Amino acid sequence: MRRFGKRVRSLLGLGVVIAFFWLTACSISARFAGQGSRAFVPSAVNPADVIYQAFNLPFDRVKAQLPELKQQGYTYIQVSPPQKSHPAENWWARYQPIDHTILQSPLGDERSLRSLTRAAHRQHLKIVVDVVLNHMANYADLSKTLHYPRFSAQDFHPQSCIDYHDRRSVTRGWLNCDLPDLDTSSVYVRQEAKNYLKKLLALGVDGFRFDAAKHIEPDYFKAILPVVPTPKLVYGEVIGETLAESNEYTGIFPITDFHLLRTMITAFSVGGDLRSLINPVAHQQALPGIQAIVFANNHDLKAGQLGLQFASAPDQQLANAFVLAQQTGLPFIYFEDAKDPLTQSGVAFHRRMANQPQFFRSGQEISPGADSANLLFIERGDRGLAIFNKAAEPFDVSIAHTPGLATGCYRELHHGFTVTIQQNQDGQKYITRWGNNTRSGMQIPGQDALFLVKISTRECGKR
Question: What is the pTM of this model?
């Protein structure tokens, strides 16, 4: 969902697309429940998957980036809405549809989107399309007459501003008070949505992100998703104020985990405690992983649309690293953040640790003084370790235990040094080499994260 700050008029009209998520890696075969609704299928996404948001980028430009994105480790490439929309060049205009039957915008046309999907498939990458089905454009006289190419006044809810304390108003009110809200309970409106999804599927797209899903009644998605075959990635943007509100949708498809986002904003801030990230689901501060798209940034946050922001850029970078280091949820990375070396290391760690379980190791088990609000240790099986230090000062100790890791050699992915773990006569495992043979223990720079992955013994002598 997004509030567009200013009223705009021109001619172009509505974006539609919907779909369903969580099916690729397994050979799980989800079937529609008898009445045309589609059952939620957990953990069907490959655990190595990561979504790259190619936000507001022309399709031809995204196509040129595919080899690099493949090398970095992304699997899904999400593009902005392609339908004919408000003619302004601004990004928000793509989220104001005029005609879902025409794919034509500053980002490209039907030909360029088809070319992108084919090129992505040659790289074994998948294209996810952002679709706007909740509302139409505020352009020229369209929002007054409600005469769009495929819709007329009877297809819209009466104009009203949204009362976010009233769920009926949330699903029937006009975003920003001026974006005409489609009557998504209408059989005709739902069929138009299905037609749009089928048009995109015919071009070879591999999934959908449903914009402003919170503003559409859940039954709508149950009705239209059967046109989306399995396996396809489908998820909804639900900015849940409460878990109860979010859970209206989690039984249909995975949704954006704004609960975890809020928890991370607090945890990484000054005075926050990283240990609150150990099991946020148990404290109702995050969604279960199979229901969650986990992220630290997107276009709405970047534009300051939602009033949710990290206190500093390093905090947000560490939060990106966290969603990649943990096992739960499907990570989502905003395209500008993908350039950050820490994020790139996190994507590589995520892929390397895809099938490894996760365990949050207490700092007391690592070293005296490591049980701190500023430190977090995530073991991935016995072959990987992610370490976070949000403090401005480095954490530096000469003796460090690694109870859960196998002995042997490790490569740190962010800075590129090697680590050796050996078992001592007391039966405990210690870090005996940290970067070079002259030091043991552990040194973590301030406001940084490290990713250790097990490597072969012949690589131990390298830096």
Answer: 0.90
